[in-house]
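Recap for those who missed Tuesday's class. We walked through two folding examples back to back. For each one, the amino acid string is listed first and its predicted structure tokens come directly after. Nothing is annotated here on purpose, so try labeling regions yourself before you check the end of the notes.
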Amino acid sequence: MGAMEYPRTAAEFNRQFSTEEACWDYLVKLRWPEGFRCPDCGNPKAWLTSNKLFRCGTCESAVSVTAGTIFQDTRKPLKLWFQAMWWVVGQKNGASAVSLNHVLGIGSEKTAWTWLHKLRRAMVRPGREPLTGEVEVDETFVGGVEKGGGRRHLGNKAMVVIAAEIRGKGIGRIRLKQIADGSSDSLTTFVREAVEKGGVIVSDGLQSYRSLPEHGYRHTRRIVEGRTKASTLLPRVHRVASLLKRWLLGTHQGAVSREHLDSYLDEFAFRFNRRTSQHRGKLFYRLVQQAVAVSPAPYAAIIKHVRGRQGQKYNR
């Protein structure tokens, strides 16, 4: 199997990643596909130390293949990480910390919970391409988040904005984000982050979208009139909203902390945008590829802003 190829089946996965050495080699090839380069000075020449560090031939920096990735400072074998990633992408409706720990025996529910949040970070590719062409945009309220006040919430609901590419009668790629409110600032900021300038934004009649042409977007408004349902005017975002709510309710029992809601939205988008992939292995490959491209997130940083986190955080 080539260096950048991926296993198609569980049997191929088990053969390809049967040793710690094989997993390490795979990370090296994904992190430096053109060959090693020192992150400090850019020098391509280095030698490998006995403890698997690249020693730069110019500045003598010692570089680990896991440094600066989600695997940084892990005490668990890479083989176990690979097994976790293979299992996670194989779960059509996502995974919980309880099930991950039960299947792989990672060590504790706390560790499994932390791993899942690290992997969700890796589901957002740095520098990913914005949505293009005609894009439906609308807001929805997602229930089941931790109760709290503020404009972002209505009881235990959070406002989420959804963008979905129009591809004929179907849906292309999507983006989702929790927003503070339905103001022009909140919605315009999201559109500018998610959609390529020059695109056509298709929205309902909300006044907050009227400033989009000032930011380089064409704007089409669809107004609900008479017995017309909003779901027929913006069918793609309404379909995505329905699937999202069903997913949160079914996989996560409708209960996530609002501080982590965006991570779950990222996971949902990762799975949805790759829904037509024919091979589980391709999802695995993309996840590992992105895992070496995103910065590390220690447990303390993940739970930093979570209120009431003792005893209730691991399945959220």
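Example two. Treat it independently of the first, because the proteins are unrelated.
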Amino acid sequence: MNEAAVAPTPPRPPGIVAGAIDLLLRPAAFFHDRRPTIRGNPALVIVIVMGLEIFADRYESVVQRLGKASPITAVASLLLSSLFIVGPLRYFIGGAWCRLRIRFSGAPDVDPEEARAIFALSEIIRSVAVLTYTLLDLALSPVRPWLSPTILLATAWSQVVSYQGVRASFPVSAWKARIWFLLVPGLFYGWLYWKLF
């Protein structure tokens, strides 16, 4: 009795939790295995999170500057501009800057969607850390998310994730990628934090 050979079922893609853990703990494998691009609803979620991070970062300074003069209107304006202007600009300009840095690192042909995905997925690490810190800190003291050691670590790790994502996804020179994805952002964030202190 001949039974027809049953074709093995292809493995199901890992769920969002497994993907998030891989992104955080094994970024090189995450980008090598998936070669992600972001479109539609996932892109919208990332843009919203990036906009909310900007809102959280600017909230305290806006409220302090206004004092008691119509803070509701100012906060609503800040929220709307963060969500509908700054978040999308950060997503697209950041993706274009990431693509340019990948080219500076030696990759001759860079898919813009793949470069944008590397930028967005590495930045979301810092954005989620800022929002989490802000929500936890909001009821206890003034919000200063950029001064938290947790945010410093999340910022540094997001740069490592972008570097590993670029190395796993594109034929780049290792030393050029270190310059453009570790050294240049490290100098920029170092300068930024020095100015904040």
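Answers for example two:
The two ends are 79 Å apart (CA to CA).
Residues 37-196 form one domain.
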